[in-house]
Every structure is written in C-alpha cells, then in structure tokens.
Amino acid sequence: MIRLSIPLRQALARLSLPLMIAAAFGVMLLGKADALLAERLRTHLSDALSPIYAALAEPTAAVRSAVEEVRFLATLREQNAALREENERLRRWHATALALEAENEMLRRQLNFLPEAAPAFVTARVVADGGGTYARAVLLATGPQHAIRKGQVALDERGFVGRVTEVGSRSARVLLATDMNSRIPVTLESSRARAIMAGTNGARPRLAHWPEGVIPVEGERVVTSAEAGAFPAGLPVGVIRVSPQGAPEIELFARLDRLDAVRLFDYGLSGIIPPEAVARPEPRPRRR
Amino acid sequence: MATPPNRRPQGRPAPAPGLVRRVDAFARLAFPGFSTAFLMVLAAAPVTLPSPVLAVTLPCVAFWSVFRPAAMMPPIVFLLGLLLDLLTLAPLGSGILVLLVLQAVALRFRRFLVRQSFLAVWLAFCVAAFGGALLYWALQSLLALQLPPVAPALHAALLSCGLYPAVALLLTRIHEAMLQAENAP
C-alpha cells in the first residue's frame, strides 16, 4: 500500500467526488460521441452475467410454477362444480341413449331386420401414386396370398378413398374418388337426397345429378349410398363446399394427397365391377 | 500491521494474524460495493416485474454513504453508476451522475443524519429518492433529446422509498456487526 501523508490523503479524498462528477460528464460525452460503445459494453456485460441469470432461472421457474399451481387449485372448486353438473347432464343423456338403444333393438326384432355382418378388411401400404390408366390412382403393395377382389372399398383413417380397380398377384390399384373416371353414388346426410360424386382430377370432386328441389347446403355431410349395390350405405365421404362459381363440390375427409396406408373392406357387394383396364400402346407421359 | 506481542493490551483476545486481518479489513471495505452490485444484478434479472434496478441501487448507495462513507468511495459509486447504466437501457452517464449527486448530498448531511431516528432518515431518503429519480429522468430526456414518460421514474422513486426500510434493516445489522468486529480487537 502506498503511504501518503495525511493532508495529501485528505485532499485526495475531498477531490475525488468532484473528479468523479467530471468523469461522469466525460462518460456522457463519450456515450453521445460513440453510440455503439454503450451497446458493445452492454453486450459484454450480459455475456458475463448470463450464467448468473441462467442459474436464477431455475428457482424463478419453480416459484412461478408454484404460483400457477396455487391459482389452479383456486379454480379447481368451480371447475369441479361445473364438471359435476356436466356429468349429471351426460348421465341423463347416457340413460336416454341406452333407452333408445333398447327400443331400437326391440323394434328391429319385431321387423325381422337382418343385421349387416361386420366387414372384414385388410390394410395395405400405398407404394406409388399415379401411373396406369388413371390420373388419380394409387398402387398398393399386398402380400402374395391375399384375398383382395375388384370392387372392394378403400378407406383411410378418416373416410372414403376409392375403389379397387385392378388386382395383381402382389399389388392392387385403387381408383381414387378424385379421378375423372370416378363416379360414386352418395347421399346428402341431412336431406337424404341421392346424388353422384364425380371426380374432376382436382382436389374436390363435383356433386352431380342431385334431385330437383334439393339444394346442397354448405357444410352438409356426404356419405355413400347403397344404390346400385356397389357400396354399403353410410361410409363417410366428405362435406359439401360451394365453389366460388357456385357449384357444389365435396371436400373429402380422406387425405388423398398423403395416403400412406388404406384399409380395403370386403362388403361382399358385386354391384358394378369396373372393366378390365384397356392396355394402351404406351403409357401416358406423366404430367408432373 | 500486526501489533508487536509485547505491546498487546491486557485482557483482550489475541489479534488475528496479519494476512487474515488484512483480508478481513478488505472484506469489510469491499462489502458495500460488491453487495450493492450483486443486488443490482439480481434486480436486473429478467422477470415479469418492471426492472427495479434504480430502486434497489438508491437505498444501498444512500445508506452506505451516510453510515460508512469510507467504504462507499466516489470511485466505487462511479462504477456502480456505470453498472446501473449498462444494466438498464439509460444513456451512458446518467446513472453515474445521479448516484454521485446522491452521494454528495448524503455526505453533506451525514453528520446531521447519523444522529437522527430511523424515521427521519427514511423521510430524508424519500425526498432524495424523488429528487434522484427526477434528475435521472431529466438527464435521460436531455441525453436522448426526447421526452420519456415521467411515470416510470416516479414508480422507481416510490418503489425505492418502499424498499428502503427493508434494505436499511438488513444493512444496519451488517453495519453493526462490522462495527463490533472493528472494535473487538
């Protein structure tokens, strides 16, 4: 330690405050002169302090989650009451559903109704799209010994995809509902009107041939119809969307642009079986 | 600075050996500056509250300037002010000047304040905190050449007034412990 005489030290002590105030003005001038200086210093400081803040973040998060927990507990009571009430309501609905089911059962028995057998299905992986005779078709890889027949109905996890048109020994081709050659008999669910869903090669097939006096409503659900014996009734197909031109189209439930596996259902129907594909001299050049 | 053993006063514990004693003295000297800086860094931690850095700094600087000016020297205040400016987004120099002015005022009145009750010191601090916050705001508007809203400065002053008793309670304990340690040998 440097030893200074006492008067000198006192003088220094008395001078240091004015000196420091002068230095503060100097820093102000420096900060005004070089605007980036402060930014650079701040960056260095935050670099140095970031480990401290990282360590602080843990207890802060713990406190915050505890506060959240308390708040959640506070709302628990009213949530509980609401859930109890809802549960009561649902229980009533459940009872109603059970009663209706029993009534349905009884009526069926009286009508000598023939129940439909649960359909058998196989799941096959989609290995290629396009190609072949149709513009919108997918190729499925199947095992060597399979029971896939022409005319089986293909569904993905959401809804109707198409129909099997060609069956090979290890593969099968499904004509998608969007293909121009696809015509599917459908029913509009709320008006029960029959119509035909005609593919256009676009993403949304058109609705065609609906009866007079029925107006397809935007958002109406469309299911397959059992007309002509090609499909079972009631498979989910899509919803009606009115195009900008005013024509009703169908937005399919199935995601045809990203099919990875489809289920092939055998309903034992043999209404209209597609003809054997006509062999062409050469395959059509691919558009994309 | 160890006293020779033959001149040791009677009836007192033996003084600590030279190095330990010097480290002890240095720790006492450095504690106010470092603790204030640490509090400021903690206060600047990114939480949802409005940043209370200025509100934390003012009580610490005022307390140590009044009760232990030897440890809160102007260069330390200068560095604390620089840290304040860097932690907040204020123009460089404004925090330094505010803290130095606060210290100058505290040093000017410290002989009077040391003898007063806690409540009087608190009131004096409140006046000083409002003055400091307004000076801070004025310096910011002057240096940035635009008029920032006054409300944050007033909030900081209010927060600082509210924080002072808690800070002072803690620091008084520490200060008394330090005095005891200094008077003991």
Question: What are its keywords?
Answer:
heterodimer; A: 288 residues; alpha+beta; Thrombin, subunit H; six-stranded antiparallel beta sheet; 2 helices; 12 strands; 24% strand; B: 185 residues; mainly alpha
What is the topological layout?
The complex is a heterodimer of chains A (288) and B (185).
Chain A: H1 6-33, H2 35-111, E1 120-129, E2 137-141, E3 153-155, E4 160-167, E5 171-176, E6 183-188, E7 194-198, E8 206-208, E9 221-224, E10 236-242, E11 248-252, E12 261-266
Antiparallel strand pairs in A: 1-2, 1-12, 2-5, 3-4, 3-12, 4-5, 6-7, 6-9, 7-8, 9-10, 10-11
Chain B: H1 18-43, H2 53-67, H3 74-87, H4 94-114, H5 118-144, H6 151-183
How would you sum up this structure, described in words?
The complex is a heterodimer of chains A (288) and B (185). In chain A, helix 1 packs across helix 2. Chain A is 36% helix and 24% strand. Chain A has 288 residues and is an alpha+beta fold. Chain A has two domains: 109 residues, no CATH class; 147 residues, Rod shape-determining protein MreC, domain 2 (Thrombin, subunit H, Beta Barrel), CATH 2.40.10. Chain A is elongated, with a radius of gyration of 37 Å. Chain A is built from two helices and twelve strands; from the N terminus they run H-H-E-E-E-E-E-E-E-E-E-E-E-E. Chain A starts with 5 loop residues before the first helix and ends in a 22-residue tail after the last strand. Chain B has 185 residues and is mainly α. Chain B has one domain. In chain B, helix 1 packs antiparallel against helix 2. The two termini of chain B are 13 Å apart. At the A-B interface, helix 1 and helix 2 of A face helix 3 and helix 4 of B.
Radius of gyration of chain A: 37 Å
Report how far the terminal alpha carbons of chain B are from each other.
Answer: 13 Å
Strand order of the largest sheet of chain A: 1-2-5-4-3-12
**Bulk shape of chain A:** elongated
Number of strands of chain A: 12
Roughly what percent helix of chain B? over 70%
Largest sheet of chain A: 6 strands, antiparallel, barrel
What is the CATH superfamily classification of the largest domain in chain A? Rod shape-determining protein MreC, domain 2
Please give the oligomerization state of what you see. heterodimer
Q: Which CATH class of the largest domain in chain A?
A: Mainly Beta
Query: Stretches of chain B where pLDDT falls below 50 for ≥5 residues?
Result: 1-5
N- to C-terminal distance of chain A: 85 Å
How many strands in all of chain B?
0
Number of domains of chain B: 1
Look up the CATH topology of the largest domain in chain A: Thrombin, subunit H
The major beta sheet of chain B can be summarized as: none
* Helix and strand composition category of chain A: alpha+beta
CATH architectural label of the largest domain in chain A: Beta Barrel
Number of helices of chain A: 2
The unreliable regions of chain A are none
Keywords (chain B): Membrane, Transmembrane, Transmembrane helix
Transmembrane segments (chain B): 37-64, 76-106, 118-139, 151-171
Organism (chain B): Neoroseomonas alkaliterrae
Protein name (chain B): Rod shape-determining protein MreD
